[in-house]
Amino acid sequence: MKLKSFFSNIFSGLLLLLVILMFVNPSVKATMMQGLMKIGFFRPSLPKTTESAPLAADVSFDDGSGKEILLSSLKGKVVFLNFWATWCPPCRAEMPSLNTLYEKYRNDKNVIFLTVDTDGNYKKAKAFMQKHKYSLPLYVATSRIPGELLERSIPTTVILNKKGQIAFRHEGAADYSNAEFIKYFGEFIKK
């Protein structure tokens, strides 16, 4: 009986320590969320239709070298747009899945990926990407981001179809490397 109580106390102590670490260390929380993603949690809810909303408002982005890109100039391509920050545990948690999706489509001339650091600190975001060996193209916004693209929550992911219309929008962490999402994303490329 004492041995069972001893192990119960040890387990409770470790569980409490893990909960505390999740609140004070973004990396621990991100790692826990990544584990949950691998077992099927945090899948983005996919609309039953690929019908699209109105055209996205124009925004300009900088790629860190001073080269600006206008969202409106990307019509004719499917745009995968992700708003994130280095300090955000859910953003960190979904990064591996974003990178996996990007690697799958990086050579497709019909697809553009924009991962946008919402803090506007390109150097810090680039250091984070390099540290974790992510190959995602990194940008910062150089104009106001309209609410239909980003409200108050990060991460936020938006897909624009080839006409420049908002076809998908998801707030919160998600696993974008699961087969169901990859099939869904592929439908925009085919159109």
UniProtKB/TrEMBL annotation:
InterPro entries: AhpC/TSA (IPR000866), Thioredoxin-like_sf (IPR036249), Thioredoxin_CS (IPR017937), Thioredoxin_domain (IPR013766), Thioredoxin_ResA/DsbE_sf (IPR050553). SUPFAM superfamilies: Thioredoxin-like. Pfam families: AhpC-TSA. Residues 37-190 form the Thioredoxin domain. This is Redoxin domain-containing protein. Keywords: Redox-active center. It comes from Chitinophaga tropicalis. GO terms for molecular function: antioxidant activity; oxidoreductase activity.
